[in-house]
C-alpha cells in the first residue's frame, strides 16, 4: 500500500523503507518471509522484549493469518508486510530507524528540558516515533517491559500506566500516550486492551483522527465491523475537516473503512471509499485492486476491469489483482483473456487456489472438461478443504461422461466437509446415473420443437412463452429474496427520504430490508438487483437512482396480496400517495416500460409497450382503478403477475407422483399434461418447448394441473 508521506532529506520514502526491511530479512531471497525469517524481524525491531516461544508463535500466527495469502499460510510477501504496517501492526519509521540508523534522520533536539512532573510536558520533535511527549516514551518503555515479562501482574501494571497518563495534566500528552501504548498492545495482539486505550484517546481528543483510526482498526481485528465502521467514520470526518494536515492518513482511513463495509456486505459503499482513496493517492494500487474486486462483486464488470487494469499498471506482479481481473473478464464474456490472467497469476504464485479454481470455471464454460478437472485438482492441492472446487470438479467429471468418478469425488468431499451442497450434488449424480441407464435401456430422449406447436387446452392453462418470463421473474425473486419482503415495508423505508439517492445509499436501505441475510447471500442478492434493475434505472451511469421508481418496480415482486402490491407501486408513482392519488398516463407508460424491460426475458411473450393515448390524453391523470386496468393488460402492462403468484404458491407444495417425460424428475409446482399422448412436463421443460422424442408430431395440446389435481 503506497501512501504519500512527508520525508526527510536523504531519507527513503515509506515503501522503500518497507522494501529494505523486507530484503534484510529475506535471507534465502525467495521473495517471502518464512517463520524463521519473520521471527528474526520481530526480534530485531523489539530489542527490549524477550519473547517466550509461545508468545513468539502467537505473534507469528496472528501476522500470517492476517496478512499472508490463504494459499501460502506461512509465507509473508512484501505486499503483506506493507499491509501490516499500513494497518498499524507496526511502526515502519521506528523499525527502519532501529535497523538502519545511518539512513534514518536524527531527531531534532528538545526545545527545553523536561519540567517537573506536575508541570506541562515538553514535546519531543521525533516524527519517526510519532511521539511528542516524554511521558509517552516512558509509558511505552514500561509497557514493553510488562509485555516482555507478562505474568499475573500485567493487568495491574497496565492499569497503573493508563492512570499515570490520565494524571499527567495535559490532554494532548494523555491522548498521545494512550495511542502509543495502544499500538504496542496491538502489536502484541492484546486487542481488547488496545481497544480500551484507543477508545480513551478518542475520548480525550475527539478531534484527532489518529485515535479514531486506530480504534477502528483494532475493532476490525476483533471482528466487530459495525463498531469499527463507526470509529473509522469518525476518523474520516475529523481528518476531512483538516484534509491538508491529514493527507497521508486519509487514504488509509478510506481503505480500512471500505474493508469494514465489505465485511457487512456493502460492496457499493466500499467501492466509493476505495475510489476516493485512489483519487487521494493515484499510486495506491491496493485501493485500485480493492475497488475492482468490489465492483466485480457488485456486478459492474467493465468498471471492475478498468480499475484492476490500472492497479496492474502500477504493480504488474500482483497475483490477487490478476485473479480478480480474470474473474471480471470472465463475467464480461472474455474467456480467453480471463484464462490468460489466471494463468499469469499462477505463474506468479503457483499455489494461488482462487486462480486455479477460476481457471477451472473458464475451462468448464468452454466445454474443456479435461483441463477443467486438472485446474480444480490444482486448487484442491493448494487448499484441500475447498469444497466448491470439489463440487465443480465433480460437475465437469459428470459433463465428461464419468458419473462414477464424479460420485466418488463428491462422497470423499462430503466426508471431509459435511457441506449440504455436496450431499445434494451426490443425490443429483445418483439420479443422473439412473437417467443414463433409462436412456441406454429404452432410448428415452427429448426434442425441442417450434414454440408454435404448443397449444393450450383452455384459458386456465399458461402459455409456454409466458411461463418462460414468469420463471425468470421467480428466479429474481428467489435470488434477491425480495419475495420475502412485504410490499408495505417499502412505504416505511421511503418515508421522509429524498427522492434521488446514490446506489450506495440504496444498498444501505436494502441491507436493512434484507437484514435476515448473511453477508454472502446479501452480496449475491445485491449483485442481481444491480445487474437486473439498477443498470436499467440508471441508464446514464450517473450513480443516482430514483427511489420512488425503484420501489415501484420491485413492489410487484414482493410478498402480499396482488392488489396490495399494485397499490404500493401506485403510491410511489402518485403525487400525494394513497389509493386516492393520481398519476399521469405518461408516468404509467414510463413505469410499465421499465417493468417490461427489466423483467421480460422472452421478447416473444408480449408485444412491445405502446403509448396509452394522444398527447393531451397522456397528460391526463388517472386513478388507481384505471392504473390497475392498464397494469393487468397482457399486451401493454404487467399481466404476467398472476402467473408469478401461481408459481409462488407452488414453491412450497410437495412433489407429485408424476415424473416429467423429459427430465425424469418428480414434478413439483405446476404440471402440464399433453391430452393426446398423455405425457407430463414440468414447468421448466414445458417453458423450453421440450417433448419426449417418442412423441414427435406437429401439434401438442397441454392442460395445466395443480399438484393435487393430478391424482
From TrEMBL:
GO cellular component labels: plasma membrane
PANTHER family reported for this sequence: EF HAND FAMILY PROTEIN, PUTATIVE, EXPRESSED-RELATED
Matching SUPFAM superfamilies: EF-hand, TPR-like
Pfam families xref list: TPR_16
Keywords noted in UniProt: Calcium, TPR repeat
Keyword hit for Calcium: yes
Record region (Disordered): 103-125
Lineage top rank: taxon: Eukaryota
Entry-linked InterPro entries: EF-hand-dom_pair (IPR011992), EF_Hand_1_Ca_BS (IPR018247), EF_hand_dom (IPR002048), TPR-like_helical_dom_sf (IPR011990), TPR_rpt (IPR019734)
Pro residues bias: start-end ranges: 104-120
Keyword Transmembrane applies: no
TPR repeat spans: 175-208, 319-352, 353-386
MF terms in GO: calcium ion binding
Protein name from the UniProt record: Uncharacterized TPR repeat-containing protein At2g32450-like isoform X1
Domain EF-hand: 13-48
Amino acid at each position: 500500500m503506497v501512501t504519500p508521506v512527508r520525508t526527510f532529506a536523504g531519507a527513503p520514502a515509506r515503501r522503500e523503507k518497507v522494501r529494505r526491511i523486507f530484503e534484510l530479512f529475506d535471507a534465502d531471497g525467495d521473495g517471502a518471509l518464512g517463520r524463521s525469517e519473520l521471527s528474526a524481524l520481530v526480534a530485531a525491531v523489539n530489542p527490549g522484549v524477550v519473547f517466550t516461544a509461545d508468545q513468539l508463535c502467537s505473534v507469528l500466527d496472528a501476522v500470517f493469518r492476517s496478512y499472508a495469502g490463504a494459499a501460502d499460510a506461512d509465507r509473508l510477501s512484501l505486499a503483506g508486510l506493507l499491509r501490516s504496517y499500513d494497518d498499524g501492526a507496526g511502526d515502519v519509521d521506528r523499525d527502519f530507524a532501529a535497523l538502519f540508523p545511518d539512513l534514518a534522520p536524527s531527531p531534532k533536539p528538545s526545545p527545553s528540558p523536561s519540567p517537573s512532573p506536575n508541570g506541562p510536558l515538553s514535546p519531543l520533535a521525533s516524527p519517526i516515533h510519532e511521539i511528542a511527549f516524554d511521558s509517552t516514551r516512558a509509558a511505552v518503555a514500561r509497557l514493553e517491559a510488562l509485555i516482555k515479562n507478562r505474568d499475573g501482574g500485567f493487568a495491574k501494571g497496565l492499569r497503573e500506566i493508563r492512570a499515570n497518563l490520565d494524571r499527567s495534566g495535559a490532554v494532548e500528552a494523555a491522548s498521545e500516550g494512550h495511542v502509543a501504548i495502544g499500538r504496542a498492545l496491538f502489536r502484541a495482539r492484546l486487542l481488547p486492551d488496545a481497544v480500551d486505550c484507543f477508545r480513551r484517546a478518542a475520548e480525550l481528543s475527539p478531534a484527532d483522527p489518529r485515535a479514531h483510526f486506530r480504534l477502528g482498526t483494532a475493532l476490525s481485528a476483533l471482528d466487530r465491523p459495525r463498531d469499527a465502521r463507526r470509529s473509522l467514520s469518525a476518523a474520516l470526518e475529523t481528518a476531512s475537516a483538516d484534509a491538508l494536515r491529514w493527507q497521508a492518513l486519509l487514504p488509509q482511513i478510506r481503505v480500512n473503512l471500505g474493508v469494514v463495509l465489505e465485511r457487512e456486505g456493502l460492496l457499493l459503499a466500499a467501492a466509493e471509499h476505495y475510489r476516493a482513496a485512489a483519487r487521494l493517492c493515484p499510486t495506491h494500487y491496493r485501493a485500485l485492486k480493492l475497488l475492482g474486486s468490489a465492483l466485480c462483486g457488485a456486478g459492474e464488470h467493465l468498471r471492475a476491469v478498468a480499475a484492476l487494469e490500472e492497479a496492474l499498471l502500477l504493480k504488474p506482479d500482483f497475483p490477487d489483482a490478476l485473479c480478480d481481473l480474470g474473474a471480471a473478464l470472465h463475467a464480461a464474456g472474455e474467456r480467453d483473456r480471463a484464462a490468460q490472467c489466471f494463468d499469469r497469476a499462477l505463474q506468479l504464485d503457483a499455489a494461488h487456489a482462487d486462480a486455479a479454481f477460476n481457471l477451472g470455471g473458464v475451462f468448464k464454460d468452454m466445454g474443456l472438461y479435461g483441463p477443467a478437472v486438472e485446474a480444480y485438482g490444482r486448487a484442491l492441492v493448494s487448499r484441500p478443504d475447498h469444497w466448491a472446487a470439489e463440487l465443480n470438479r465433480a460437475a465437469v467429471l459428470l459433463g465428461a461422461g464419468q458419473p462414477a468418478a464424479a460420485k466418488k469425488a463428491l462422497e470423499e468431499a462430503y466426508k471431509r466437509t459435511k457441506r449440504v451442497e455436496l450431499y445434494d450434488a451426490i443425490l443429483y449424480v445418483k439420479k443422473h446415473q439412473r437417467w443414463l441407464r433409462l436412456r441406454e435401456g429404452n432410448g428415452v430422449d427429448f426434442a425441442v420443437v417450434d414454440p408454435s406447436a404448443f397449444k393450450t387446452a383452455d384459458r386456465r392453462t399458461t402459455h409456454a412463452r409466458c411461463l418462460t418470463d414468469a420463471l425468470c421473474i421467480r428466479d429474481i425473486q428467489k435470488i434477491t429474496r425480495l419475495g420475502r419482503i412485504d410490499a408495505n415495508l417499502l412505504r416505511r423505508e421511503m418515508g421522509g427520504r429524498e427522492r434521488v439517492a446514490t446506489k450506495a445509499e440504496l444498498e444501505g436501505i436494502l441491507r436493512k430490508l434484507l437484514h435476515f441475510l448473511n453477508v454472502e447471500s446479501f452480496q449475491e442478492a445485491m449483485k442481481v438487483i444491480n445487474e437486473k434493475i439498477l443498470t436499467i434505472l440508471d441508464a446514464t451511469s450517473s450513480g443516482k437512482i430514483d427511489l420512488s421508481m425503484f420501489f415501484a418496480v420491485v413492489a410487484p415482486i414482493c410478498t402480499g396480496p396482488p392488489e396490495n402490491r399494485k397499490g404500493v407501486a401506485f403510491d410511489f408513482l402518485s403525487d400525494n400517495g394513497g389509493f386516492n392519488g393520481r398519476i399521469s398516463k405518461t408516468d404509467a407508460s414510463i413505469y410499465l416500460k421499465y417493468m417490461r424491460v427489466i423483467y421480460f426475458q422472452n421478447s416473444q411473450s408480449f408485444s412491445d409497450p405502446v403509448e396509452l393515448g394522444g398527447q393531451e390524453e397522456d397528460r391526463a391523470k388517472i386513478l388507481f382503478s384505471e392504473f390497475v386496468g392498464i397494469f393487468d393488460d397482457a399486451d401493454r402492462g404487467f399481466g404476467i403477475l398472476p402467473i408469478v403468484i401461481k408459481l409462488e404458491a407452488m414453491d412450497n407444495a410437495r412433489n407429485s407422483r408424476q415424473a416429467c417425460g423429459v427430465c425424469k424428475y418428480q414434478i413439483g409446482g405446476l404440471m402440464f399434461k399433453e391430452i393426446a399422448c398423455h405425457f407430463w412436463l414440468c414447468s421448466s421443460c414445458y417453458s423450453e418447448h421440450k417433448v419426449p422424442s417418442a412423441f414427435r408430431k406437429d401439434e401438442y395440446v397441454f392442460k395445466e394441473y395443480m399438484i393435487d389435481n393430478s391424482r
